[in-house]
Specification:
single chain, mainly alpha, about 0% strand, binds iron/sulfur cluster
């Protein structure tokens, strides 16, 4: 488990277990949920629609064997059912504000009953933006419910009547792979529900989503030129767990995602000029476009690398990058290539 999330989870559980620290525990829970939800936001913002129904770990055991869309649906369907049917006793978010229709889901269940190809097929049908809005709304409405809880309410238990009520909603499939959920939830008190559907369950599925998106990026880069038009090496990029290269649909380079058309200005300019990369351009040294903007802290490093490629070729450049990484411990190339492109070029040549 991610060290930071694991720590926050432990602290939150300890704080919630005592009346004096309960309000602080709720705050910690919100902070954990916020941090986890940011991962979902970034994934939804960065990846192409097709990424959300791919199963790069199909057949494996574990949550990473699902899709990104399924994971979002599953986390928030469970939370919606538990928060509204069990704790608040009011209407689920899915059945309000037209969410069910907007998401285009053929199901109202948690999806536990689906397997293999069914998960991929189901995921293809979902409207991602509506699903994301639903997830946001569920998170916020649960936070509201949690804010109104008091310490004594944590010990509230659920009996046969709740089991019956949950069965009647039809929100949990009768299939063996799903029906156990109702007994599982009803075997817990409110504190137990906070500890699983509202926190740990998120961690497990969001970590699985990270594995899925890392793998999708890796697969996208397979067989693709690892040199970005600006001169950076995708093979050595600190963003490689998020970006599948600006030469693919999995382009999550910061300049591309910040551009209104989702295209990096350097890549677009190269395309217009019919060039493979800025390393082929006579205007390189003086260029201030996109990645080479003076305000970008990676501008000089990118330029130094593009100049190196221009003079020595891509193969030599990748070897120089390998040598730099062997010699120094760094994440961002600009940490080593400095803030002067001529100096950066010299460092690469002497590596
Ligand atoms: S951010 Fe740029 S260098 Fe890094 S992986 Fe993406 S395209 Fe490649
Ligand atoms: S003008 Fe600048 S962005 Fe365009 S190809 Fe030349 S170096 Fe690249």
């Amino acid at each position: 488990m991610d060290k930071n999330w694991s720590e926050m989870n432990k602290e939150m559980q300890a704080l919630l277990s005592k009346e004096a620290t309960f309000p602080e525990g709720i705050k910690k829970l919100f902070a954990l949920r916020k941090s986890l939800f940011e991962q979902i936001t970034q994934i939804v913002a960065a990846f192409p629609a097709e990424a959300f129904y791919q199963m790069p770990f199909a057949g494996a055991e574990g949550y990473h064997a699902k899709t990104l869309s399924y994971s979002i649906w599953h986390i928030f369907r469970i939370e919606d059912i538990v928060a509204h049917e069990m704790i608040a006793g009011d209407q689920q978010v899915l059945f309000s504000q037209g969410f069910l229709k907007a998401i285009h889901s053929p199901l109202i269940t948690t999806g536990n009953e689906l397997s293999g190809g069914e998960i991929a097929e189901f995921s293809k049908q979902l409207n991602l933006q509506a699903l994301y809005r639903y997830a946001q709304e569920v998170m916020q409405s649960t936070n509201q419910i949690l804010m109104n809880l008091n310490f004594s309410g944590l010990k509230r238990k659920f009996g046969e009547d709740m089991i019956e009520k949950l069965r009647r909603t039809g929100c949990v499939s009768d299939a063996d792979s799903a029906s156990w959920l109702i007994d599982y939830w009803c075997g817990k008190d409110v504190l137990g529900l906070i500890r699983m559907p509202f926190s740990r369950h998120w961690i497990m599925h969001i970590e699985a989503m990270q594995r899925i998106k890392n793998k999708l990026c890796k697969l996208a880069r397979k067989g693709v030129d690892p040199i970005a038009p600006c001169g950076f090496s995708c093979n050595h990029c600190f963003l490689s767990a998020w970006c599948g290269s600006c030469r693919t649909a999995y382009n999550a380079c910061s300049f591309a995602t910040a551009s209104p058309d989702g295209k990096c200005p350097n890549a677009a300019c190269c395309q217009e000029k019919g060039m493979d990369g800025c390393y082929d351009c006579g205007l390189l040294e003086k260029c201030e476009k996109g990645f080479y903007s003076p305000s970008n802290d990676g501008a000089n490093a990118a330029k130094a690398q593009a100049l190196y490629i221009h003079q020595h070729g891509k193969k030599e450049f990748l070897k120089a990058q390998d040598r730099l990484h062997e010699k120094y411990d760094f994440a961002k190339t600009q940490e080593i290539l400095g803030q002067d492109y001529k100096e950066g070029l010299r460092i690469l040549e002497e590596s």
